[in-house]
Write a structure and sequence with these properties.
It is a single chain. By secondary structure, the protein is mainly alpha-helical. It has a domain at about 1-105. Helix content is about 80%, strand content about 0%. The chain has four helices and no strands. Helix 1 (about 1-60) runs antiparallel to helix 2 (about 60-90). It is elongated and about 90 Å long. This is Putative G-protein coupled receptor 22. Pfam families: 7tm_1. It comes from Acipenser ruthenus.
């Protein structure tokens, strides 16, 4: 009874440690994503703010107005950047995109083989694991078990 309780405690502690690690990893990812989005926001909107202050202090000039238009386009571009950044920092989306690209690369390699039999090595394509044993059907496995039992 005591052994069973200590095993249960050890399993519970392992689960708690794993949950804690997962929570810390999630917090790191959220913090990193927040820093990236805030820095791109500042990087896009800070230049236009500085140029507007310069125009207010120095007065409008042709060069400042031209620079202001460029920075204004950059600032409004952040409305496109932020959803993209949010989407590409999501782990699930990255996995889906990576799997789609892998499938596409594999299909391209299979459809259009290289001339003269050259081998194309691609880091996106995972090599197939060799040495797998073929799965036995239920009847084959049952027959094998029965024959081993009869021999004994």
């Amino acid at each position: 009874m005591g052994v069973q309780a200590s095993v249960s405690v050890i399993i519970a502690l392992r689960r708690a440690v794993k949950r804690h690690r997962d929570r810390r990893e999630r917090q790191k990812r959220v913090f990193r994503m927040s820093v990236i989005i805030i820095s791109t926001f500042l990087g896009c909107w800070a230049p236009i703010s500085v140029v507007n202050l310069l125009i207010l202090c120095l007065g409008p000039s042709d060069s400042l107005v031209t620079v202001r238009i460029c920075f204004l386009a950059l600032a409004y571009g952040s409305t496109v950047f932020h959803p993209l950044l949010y989407a590409f920092t999501r782990q699930k989306l990255r996995k889906v995109l990576k799997s789609k690209v892998r499938k596409r690369v594999v299909s391209l390699l299979q459809v259009d083989p290289a001339p003269s039999g050259t081998v194309i090595h691609n880091s996106w394509v995972e090599p197939r694991k060799g040495g797998r044993r073929p799965r036995l059907e239920c009847s084959d496995a049952t027959d094998r078990c029965l024959t081993e039992a009869v021999r004994e």
